[in-house]
């Protein structure tokens, strides 16, 4: 009951009308900025930090959290409507989000995304309130060998992302891993596959690759007359999800929350891993898995829930251990430090009131996100009323700005164009794109954790068989890989259209 | 395989697919060769070339597997709908030109011309509409980003343009 | 001091001369209009968020913003023990809009070992000012079987290369510290390299995946407060202010000194006025009483050095580390 009392106290001090105003303004500005190309949550929060500098500790952190939620949601808006992800964590949403837009269901996708973010965020925050301490130490159980095994589980979900052919999915996965190898080797510092280009030492920029592979290649493969009828601005009625949509989204919300929250606890995991794995899980376990990729609501609900649950779950290592688990959290931590607060367990001991106010403000931020964005969905989707050829020109301009602002260099614009062409070729060859994105994100994590593990064991590979958590995870991965191999020749989903049957 | 069924010419592998497989194999071989030079294994486990080596080998093997699958007609890639060549060419070329020109003519001029090309010449939007949208998209976006958000966009490097602040 | 004065007057003269000419074209290249309105300064941190480098940069950032009158954005580019971030820093345009946090030994040592294929040398950096010196420490779990330094070292002698210890990357400060311990005492700890930075190393230590935490004073200050780590020794000539009860290595009879020195640098070739402005802004930011107080809270003792002194210090460090480099090179 103690916790509840303190939380209520937190709400009492967070719920002043000034703070609500800050949160409202922050959420609105965040969303608008998140919609702009090239400005993801990290840059968005960093841009708006000056607004918060003159506020008191509670006010400034409430506003920052609201800005953070806003920018994240802004990235989702562009993913769904324009097929251009604002940041890595919502990259996978474009698969089904944009497909839904093509079906005239953009409003539903955005509403469900907002609802999913709210649910994932609130539940993760509830986890933070109820069991921060034990959960924090749970995250610590994941050492390098366990981390490696987890990444292997993630990569094994690749089999779920396969389209018609497992071989082509694996090719796509191998390509993603290879792209992630470009740059300076993360352990020994040797440059790999940089072709002597200085710009590549830092690796290929993820956002440029994604924007090219999905957004640009989609425009390139567009044929006049095909989409004209289908891309349409939805009417007011079709903005709201139907009862079926809600029913189908519920399991995806649950899985997304679980995956995002769990991975958020682990220092070093990024939000994009959560959203990708959640998509993989939907592909594997959803009752409607065959519709995924063609505009299924689960493909939006799962990842969007997961990345917000991840973001809130990642606050647990921050509060319990003082470890910022992701770049956005690091920006938040910066704001804490500015206010003279050291994040970590001492925060609850020394500034309990502020700590609880912050937690209360996380809930408030989540609620604001919902009440602010659902009514605005109609406004956002009206972007689609712009005629397609005009929209194409503007989207291309957005992509150029987005790619340019990654490193403020045209090099990334060229990378984006190159991957647009590669994406077109892969589509042409029926090589699925999703596995490439999955491995592109997981590649560096896998390599790093493997080499750290082998440092611990002095080069002995049996370390992966000696630790119970690792063994369980590797078995899970094996089970996932083996399940479709049993029907390698005729995937059930395709039996109907396979001419050989 | 002389008799080809009406539904699907199983034995005939599309030329573009063959080309794709050849490219993938070549990439795999290149990676294999390159990774050997990076150091595969040292006394503390895998070296920098370890992962690339496995991936290169995997890519070569997978391409081969795909080739045989395709020939046998198993899980073959369906004939892709041909994409609109002129669309691809116009978009890719205009983007390349824009990216190459940005450092010289700056964001405002470059994007203005780019948008005019796509709106007026390709989409046949009316002159007034094109002009308004192109101006908003170039000058408007430029000032929104640089003044409003403190995010810098490319400026012109060539003398006559750079002097008037584009 | 004289050098700074001289440099300032030279800069003032150049400034006067260029303004006298009044050509708009030259103004932007010589840089006295730095920083331009609407252009933000990127501060590259070559380690993951949460380490001392990152924390210090984030504390300095707002004062820098105030002094420079423009946005300063902290950007983390972790990996390869700092090499990835340093490469990004040195390959940036020397126009003042990209600066970075530089910490020795990592920044000093990376270019010395040809095996790393570093694209930069000491000459590619323009030091702007040193902020802190952070001595290395050796810490264990509070319930560890090794309750003092001698027990740990004896155990490492008895069973060489079995007790694991964290570093923040091959040839980082901690790797050197481990090598120095081995050289001086014969106790061989087995290094585990967390090339993303101290926060990853600390996490693995807290999760008991690695037995010994080799880190800096600032990394363990908060852990000690929480009772999550027991510091066995500080590798410095004096006890650390933040850890007054912990003996130095010298007190335990081992003459080992190891520390990480951190400051800020730009890519070499800054126009003089830009360098002046950045140096002055950094000096104000680093010596800002509020920043110093917050740094002290985190166990970071501010030890400012001007650009010129930091440059000399850097050269000295390079000479020192050249001699011990063979200890940490891959065989």
Note down, in words, how this protein is organized:
The complex is a heterotrimer of chains A (501), B (166) and C (331). By secondary structure, chain A is mainly alpha-helical. Chain A has one domain (2-491). Chain A contains 21 helices and two strands. Chain A has a two-stranded antiparallel ribbon with strand order 1-2. In chain A, 66% of the residues are buried. Chain C has helices at 2-21, 24-30, 52-68, 83-90, 106-109, 149-158, 173-185, 198-206, 217-225, 272-287, 289-297, 307-324; strands at residues 41-45, 72-76, 98-104, 125-140, 164-167, 190-193, 212-216, 230-234, 259-267, 302-306. Chain C folds into two domains: 2-132 and 261-328, Bordetella uptake gene, domain 1 (D-Maltodextrin-Binding Protein, domain 2, 3-Layer(aba) Sandwich), CATH 3.40.190.150; 135-234, 3-Layer(aba) Sandwich (D-Maltodextrin-Binding Protein, domain 2). In chain C, α7 (173-185) links the parallel β5 (164-167) and β6. By secondary structure, chain C is α/β, with parallel strands linked by helices. In chain C, α3 packs across α10. In chain C, 42% of the residues lie in helices and 20% in strands. Residues 1-29 of chain C have low confidence and may be disordered. At the A-B interface, α8, α9, α17, α18 and α19 of A face α1, β2, α2, α3 and α4 of B. Chain A: InterPro entries: DUF112_TM.
* CATH architectural grouping of the largest domain in chain C: 3-Layer(aba) Sandwich
Count of β-strands of chain C: 10
Order of helices and strands of chain C: HHEHEHEHEHEHEHEHEEHHEH
C-alpha-based Rg of chain C, rounded: 21 Å
Query: How many strand segments of chain A?
Result: 2
Question: What is the makeup of the main sheet of chain A?
Answer: 2 strands, antiparallel
Strand order of the largest sheet of chain A: 1-2
Q: Order of helices and strands of chain A, N to C?
A: HHHHHHHHEEHHHHHHHHHHHHH
* Largest sheet report of chain C: 8 strands, mixed
Fraction in beta strands of chain A: under 5%
What's the end-to-end separation of chain C, in Å? 45 Å
CATH superfamily of the largest domain in chain C: Bordetella uptake gene, domain 1
